[in-house]
Amino acid sequence: MAERVYKPFYHHLESPNAEAIKVRFWEKVEIGSPEDCWRWTAKANSKGYGFFKIASYHQVAAHRLSWAIHNRRDPGDLLTLHNCDNPQCVNPVHLRLGTDLDNMEDKMSRGRHRNGDRKGAKNGANKLDLATLAQVIAGFQIGLSNTEIANRLGVSHATISLIRLGKSWTEDSAKLGWKPKPKFKRAVSRPSGERGI
């Protein structure tokens, strides 16, 4: 495994541009109540962790910057861990500092290690959460099309289609009462006496 190189960033939050940086940062966050996850809405990596360009030459993990803003200090070479297990969350109340060992113990205890369950809400790269999935299922149940649901929720048609077909969010959808229709083959009518090839 490659060694992680820590690059200090807190000096940007002490610069004359600090307030502008904070405003730009919080504009990219869906802020809820203090106990809710605050979702990062901008650039994210394949694991769902957000990134913020704090300066033209410096990109910082969004949750690390949130922690630093809230605690008024640089996290240094420690990791910024999520109590909520949601990589998109930047609520500083849900964040804490920890070591590589702390992070590994979290992964093991929460089933996120390499062979752990990464389906549905446990997949950090997902575009939905359980509340949004409930809205998708409600849309199915009242007869909305995939396109209508996708447009209302701001997700792709493909995402909705995979849920409807039972190929994505299967376990969580079942808990919410959604059961995909069984696959069927279309009957082909042939003139009598003609054999199919």
Biggest sheet strand line-up: 1-2
| Rg from Cα | 22 Å
Strand content: 5-15%
**The CATH topology of the largest domain is what?**
Homing Intron 3 (I-Ppo) Encoded Endonuclease, Chain A
Low-confidence stretches: none
Chain-averaged pLDDT: 84
For the termini, the CA-CA separation is 55 Å
Give the name of the CATH architecture of the largest domain: Alpha-Beta Complex
> How many H/I helical runs?
7
Q: Which structural class do the helices and strands define?
A: alpha+beta
| Secondary-structure element series | HEEEEHEEHHHHH
Portion in helices: 25-40%
Please give the CATH class of the largest domain: Alpha Beta
Query: How many β-strand runs?
Result: 6
> How does the major sheet shape up?
2 strands, antiparallel
How many domain units?
Answer: 2
**Which shape, going by the Cα principal axes?**
elongated
Question: Care to describe what's here?
Answer:
The chain is of the alpha+beta class. The protein has 2 domains: about 10-110, Alpha-Beta Complex (Homing Intron 3 (I-Ppo) Encoded Endonuclease, Chain A), CATH 3.90.75; about 125-175. Helix content is about 30%, strand content about 10%. The protein is built from 7 helices and 6 strands, in the order αββββαββααααα. It has helices at about 20-25, 60-70, 100-110, 130-140, 145-155, 155-165, 170-175, and strands at about 30, 40, 50-55, 60, 80, 95-100. The strands form 3 sheets. Strands 1-2 form a two-stranded antiparallel ribbon. A two-stranded antiparallel sheet has the order 3-4. β3 and β4 form a beta hairpin. The longest helix is centred in the C-terminal third of the chain and has 12 residues, at about 130-140. The radius of gyration is 22 Å and the shape is elongated. It starts with 17 loop residues before the first helix and ends in a 22-residue tail after the last helix.
